[in-house]
Amino acid sequence: MTPVELSRTVLCAVRRAVDEGELSVAVPARAVVTPPGPGGRGDYATNIALQLARPAGQAPLRVAEVLRPYLMGAEGVRGVEITGPGFLNISLDGSAVPDLVRRVRLDGPRYGHSDDLAGEVFAVRVPYEVRAEVLADVLARIIGAQGGRVDVSHDVGHHVGHDLGHDRGGHARGDVGGDRGATVLRPVPAPEDPAPLGLDAARWALLHPAPHDRPRITADHLVQREGNPLFRVRYAHARTRAVCRNAADLGFTAQPGPLDAADLVALLADYPRVLATAVAVAPSNRPSKLSSDPRVVPDSSAPSRLARHLVGVADATLVLLPAVLPRGEEKPSAAHRARLALAEAAGAVLAGGLSLLGIDAPDHL
């Protein structure tokens, strides 16, 4: 069960509690599900009880107690604990890890794609500036992976539609207006032409920093060493392909199974949620109008979030890889097969994510 699926399970629990008359609230559009923080337990945690407490007119702990039995009865959920002021900590059953790995390997680089935005068309306007152009291109790729479409045009210099650019201090602006309802993207511009870095390094240099941060256009993006995040991501992908080739030479294949690689598993499970954050409810300086009719718009931070997530996946993958293949006279075991399957899954996510960023994922590096 991925965080996106678990989020739907949480919302289903809320809906059932409302239908049974135990809660009197509007069912929210989404429930945030994340790995548990300090003091948390289980595989995932949600703050949905804290979110619903005020509209329900009840204490967060009471809301959590109402929701707990509905979550306990959900398929794939092994246990639910309440911690702190009302966090619900959810443990999944033992089949969760093998099932996740099977799904990623089955979907390949398209893992995390969905049709959640099918039929949605987003108008985006950008200035004639390379970073804004690349940002819009990647937003279109990520939203396309969710079934939506982005129509990109060029901004003529005045504020039209919902502006997700930044003021001179680098602060995000949010204003809804204009007559075309377009989203205007104005990230901090590139300080110089990134073309001399080559296509892949140039795109990474523009996309990895948050839109309000000034990108660095330097040769550091080209060096093949651990301090270069782009190198680590591409190297981790190439290494997953190498261990698959080496396993084939040794005569054994992957077989998903239980294993101890919680950090990497959590990052793979969270990948669909990262893609889903390509759109968000628009912030506004005019809450009276927007609060009753929230508008979903492309989120200019989505490409940088994806890039940083891939760095996390790569780092966790590089920790796993030394234990994938048998050593010396050691025979391939179930643990080796399970690690190989997880390595294949990680490689698929790295390849899929780099593709959405418009960056090549070589099998040899």
What's the SSE blueprint?
Layout: H1 3-19, E1 33-34, E2 44-46, H2 48-56, H3 60-72, E3 77-83, E4 87-92, H4 96-107, E5 121-126, H5 130-145, E6 149-154, E7 162-163, E8 183-184, H6 199-207, H7 229-250, H8 262-276, E9 279-281, H9 287-290, E10 296-298, H10 302-320, H11 334-356
Parallel strand pairs: 5-6, 5-8, 7-8
Antiparallel strand pairs: 1-2, 2-4, 3-4, 9-10
Helix pairs in contact: 1-3, 2-3, 4-11, 7-10, 7-11, 8-10, 8-11, 10-11
Main features:
single chain, 365 residues, 11 helices, alpha/beta, 4-stranded antiparallel sheet
Compact description:
A hairpin with a 3-residue loop joins strand 3 and strand 4 (87-92). Helices cover 44% and strands 11% of the residues. The longest helix is centred in the last third of the chain and has 23 residues, at 334-356.
Distance between the termini: 33 Å
C-alpha geometry: flat
Total E-strand runs: 10
What is the N-to-C succession of helices and strands?
HEEHHEEHEHEEEHHHEHEHH
Rg value: 22 Å
Strands side by side in the biggest sheet: 1-2-4-3
What oligomeric arrangement do these chains adopt?
single chain
Overall mean pLDDT stands at 86
Structural class: alpha/beta
- The proportion of strand residues reads 5-15%
Low-pLDDT segments, ≥5 res = 158-180, 285-293
Biggest sheet overview:
4 strands, antiparallel
Notes on the structure:
There is one protein chain. This protein is an alpha/beta fold. It is built from eleven helices and ten strands. It has a four-stranded antiparallel β-sheet. Strands 6-5-8-7 form a four-stranded parallel β-sheet, with helices on one face. It has a two-stranded antiparallel sheet with strand order 9-10. The chain is flat and about 60 Å long. It starts with a helix and ends in a 9-residue tail after the last helix. About 9% of the residues have low confidence.
